[in-house]
Give the backbone structure.
Amino acid sequence: MFEPSDDTPVGTLFRIGVETVQGTADGDDYTEMTGPNVFPFIIPFTDTIRRSCIRVVILDDALYESEEQFSLRFIAIKDFILPEDFVIDPSLLLPYNVVLDPPGSSITILDDEEVTVGFINPSYSAREDEGRMIFTVGVTGRYDIATDIELSFSTADNLISKTAAMAGQDYTSIINMPIILRPGMQTIQIAVNLTDDLLIEINEVFRGTLSLVTTDRVSLGLDNANATIIEDKRFLIGFENTSYTVNEEGEFGFSFLEVCVRMFEPSDDTPVRTLFRIGVETVQGTADGDDYTEMTGPDVFPFILTFTDTIRRSCIRVVIEDDALYESEKSNFLFDLLRFKT
């Protein structure tokens, strides 16, 4: 009670009601005291009671949200007891000699939840012919969001890798694209266009990166993710023949067997934009190391064949030993395609 002053007697008792008024905050954020079915706070004033206080319950929800407001306003009540079903009409109950100034008070609720956002997974993949690489970004903490969170998304070539995809050739570059997580959204997907070319390539990798635009109580979790473009066109490589016959006799005590390996797919008019090598080793049959020079085992490096866009066929020569034994025809030793090595 600002007036009259504390040394001026007050010869009456009156009560003033205080009710809550919604703003950006509502009944989910605090306990409302308003409306025909809710009795407001009642504050008595007398000669000895010049100051009274009320408590409003603020609800601690599990939402990440911006600061919110609501307000309190007066309802003046003369010295009588209201029936329980009485609906308060401020215009009728305000005593003529009671001035309410200021008539209300604004309250701001500061949110205390913190959230973490980032890529949901550290790696993503898509076939080249699918045309799009999908990244998923979302809230990785334990809170839902009730206000916008803005991030920035970019792509980058994975330059430290021999399998790097190149922007403009393999995918469409994105630089600082705004990404907004809106209320109620837990995740959002980002699409990067892929180039489905006619080249035969190995699987290639680029990166997606995130940075924060909204920084208030937001931390960045997984900010980098690898994206693998899976080549949808295949290489088919094999021996030109499945069996060979060679005579043991040679001019210098040995002879040679030439074995060729061919790239059957893709066709010769389809570009190949990679270099890879294939190892070929010998495998014993009825013939063994006394009959030919073996190329196998942990201490012997196998034949290495290189294939590129211009090298679609490679051949090797195996030394056949001409011994002094009378023997039957021996089963040809075998060749195995061991491995791809890019």
The mean pLDDT is 79. Residues 43 and 337 are 92 Å apart (CA to CA). The longest strand covers residues 254-265. Residues 115-230 form a domain with the Immunoglobulin-like fold (CATH 2.60.40.2030).
